[in-house]
Design goal:
alpha/beta; TIM Barrel; 8-stranded parallel sheet; 4-stranded antiparallel sheet; 12% strand; globular
Length: 480
């Protein structure tokens, strides 16, 4: 079997949002359970921990509708970490029983954690301003990240009420600084154990984001600041009206005039967090679906070309490489594939779509330079998928895999690991063989997504051992 080299040797990963970890304060965070998860991945022989975006959560608690392409979500901060810094006391981190297990209850989590983050900030402000309290590191962070941090904090100040306006910007800076500290520590721990972190960068940003607010010249906006045209996807077999996302389109001429500085900064920020990044909706680097402002559906849109080569050249120049994965799903054209291949970017294959005649995603069709998934975060779990699969596709699945559907998650994980793709990435739910109730996201469903959490008991040593045996058998544990 040919073994690729470089950034993507033959390996495997697990897709698990940070939010899904079993932390005791209601949502996965950068605390002890994240370190335990890294240990579990290492014991299983896994190389990549793929996350979803870690920016501020947007409407519907979505990580893909963030108010900033640079800032981080404060709910992911570890209260235990703040206790270790001396900014909380033991009573602050006990945690109510109802938050310790079960799905994420965002409203309750937000109320509980925000109060304690405020306590930590108040104690931080009381500390003497000398090197022993981390103030020098704080100042260095604020100076390094000022290009996005200052606009982020200015918005926090404007949105605050009454007397709190005076401290809102400082609090926002403090929370982003603590995230940077906790993230850097976790990433170093993962690196020591052979675990690499993979991020996810949505190509577009929201109309109400700080990015649009602070750089309106980089977006196609009307005089009143509203988008001239909206983003989305054209109609297809699953969505007869298409998908209307509602983000503003970029003014590519303005980006070109600035040497793609905003994109350079954005991707440099991502690479301070991750070892590789999946570009969500990579198609938009070649062409984008433009929908007139005010349209009720995406059906009236049209394709418009985007300067993918210039953009990728700028990113490559900034990063001295392209540690990117192209999410090349949807309305893929030969031009999109040519752009992906010209820069040597791995694309994606999704096995749940691989059992119809002539499928692009068929297991035997996966090329070496690709990342193979049984399913992504937008798919049903493999168990849920099987229960709704048409009989004809079930027949093809059985014939192609010798699987009978009784252990469909295990079958698809095994098949993904056996493909030629240099990387196989599996949803944590499918490693565990869970059903539809554990689904991460249902596109088009505005609420009730992003809530599933794994239990600590599910991350057992026997499960890690079985996964490691599979990865060893399929040559997916790289040599040290």
């Amino acid at each position: 079997m040919t073994k690729p080299t470089g950034l993507f040797p033959r390996a495997a990963g697990v897709l698990a949002p940070l939010s899904c970890l079993p932390a005791r304060h209601g949502i996965g965070d950068l605390g002890p359970e994240a370190y335990r998860f890294v240990d579990w991945l290492s014991s299983a022989g896994v190389t990549w921990w793929q996350m979803l975006p870690v920016g501020p959560l947007g409407p519907g608690d979505s990580p893909y509708a963030s108010s900033s392409a640079f800032a981080a979500e404060p709910l992911y901060l570890s209260l235990q970490g703040l206790l270790d810094m001396g900014l909380l006391v033991a009573g602050d981190v006990t945690g109510p029983r109802e938050l310790k297990t079960g799905n994420v209850k965002y409203g309750h989590v937000h109320s509980y954690k925000t109060e304690r983050l405020e306590r930590a900030f108040a104690r931080w402000r009381e500390l003497p301003e000398d090197g022993s309290t981390g103030r020098d590191d704080f100042k260095a962070f604020c100076e390094r990240e000022a290009h996005w941090l200052d606009p982020w904090c200015a918005r926090a100040e404007r949105e605050a009420e009454g007397d709190d306006r005076d401290r809102a910007a400082d609090r926002a800076r403090f929370l982003q600084f603590v995230f940077d500290l906790q993230w850097t520590s976790l990433r170093a721990y993962a690196m020591e154990r052979g675990i690499k972190l993979m991020g996810d960068a949505p190509i577009f940003v929201g109309a109400d984001s700080v990015d649009v607010e602070s750089h309106p010249e980089l977006f196609r906006l009307s005089a009143d600041g509203s988008p001239e045209v909206l983003t989305g996807c054209p109609p297809d077999g699953m969505n007869p009206d298409g998908q209307l996302w509602g983000h503003p389109h970029y003014d590519w001429e303005a980006h070109r005039d600035q040497g793609f500085r905003w994109w350079r900064d954005r991707m440099a920020r991502q690479m301070r967090l991750f070892d590789a990044v999946r570009i969500d909706h990579f198609i938009g680097f070649r062409n984008a679906w433009e929908i007139p402002a005010g349209a009720e559906t995406a059906a009236d849109g049209h394709w418009a070309q985007t300067p993918g080569e210039e953009l990728l050249d700028a990113i490559q120049d900034e990063l001295s490489g392209l540690p990117l994965i192209a999410e090349d799903l949807g309305s893929v054209t030969d031009e999109v594939l040519a752009l992906r291949d010209a820069y040597g970017l791995p694309g994606m294959r999704v096995l749940q779509w691989g059992f119809s005649p002539g499928s692009y995603h068929a297991p035997h069709a996966a090329p070496l330079n690709s990342v193979c998934y049984p399913a992504t975060h937008d798919n049903d779990t493999c168990v849920g998928w099987w229960r709704s699969l048409p009989q004809e596709e079930r027949k093809r699945f059985r014939a192609a895999t010798a699987g009978q559907g009784k252990s469909v998650a295990r079958d698809l994980v095994r098949i993904a690991c056996g493909t030629r793709s240099h990387t196989a990435i599996v949803q944590l739910q499918d490693v565990l063989g869970l059903g539809r109730a554990a689904r991460t996201n249902t596109p088009g469903k505005p609420t009730g997504n992003w809530v599933w959490r794994v239990s600590r008991a599910d991350l057992s040593a026997p499960r890690a051992r079985r996964l490691r045996e599979l990865l060893e058998a399929t040559d997916r544990i790289p040599n040290p």
